[in-house]
Amino acid sequence: xxxxxxxxxxxxxxxxALNDYVEKKASKLDRYVEGVEGxxxxxxxxxxxxxxxxxxxxxxxxHGKGFVLRAEERTDQxxxxxxxxxxxxxxxxxxYKGKRYQSQAxxxxxxxxxxxxxxxxxxxxxxxxIARRKRFVLYPMTAVEAVEQMKLVGHEQFFIFYNMDAGCxxxxxxxxxxxxxxxxxxxx
Length: 188
Description:
With 188 residues, the chain is an alpha/beta fold. The protein has three helices and eight strands, in the order βαβββαβαβββ. Strands 1-2-3-4 form a four-stranded mixed β-sheet. A four-stranded mixed β-sheet has the order 5-6-7-8.
């Protein structure tokens, strides 16, 4: 079954040929990993004064049952940027698939004890103006799986997920010393 593909353009018009090309290749991404529910492809054009090599930016986001994968590429041609992003997401999917099966084969009973002592951090600075809002589905997973997802998605600073072990929404973040921290939430 082909994955549901959503194509969005920013600062550029997507003609029928480009739309067909992107949809045809993106719909086949569900062959690599089971559970792919949707593929979002963002195509953007940015006129750069310094370099023409990164005028086209393509970002592919794969949503699946329990995972989110993302790849981004920039080149001077939209087709080559898309092809490079597809190659990158395929490598991420293979890596995810291998790590997923390895972790299931080991011990599915992994807990928070595998992570180092975690600290809660509260910053008392007033929030800046909200420039962008995002909405996404939280998938239940363990903290160890969240670390893997954080690496696969390419988020360097934080990752939000529903913590199955703690039974709450948690925030995983990377500390300045290279270790990870975990913030568990609770309602007052």
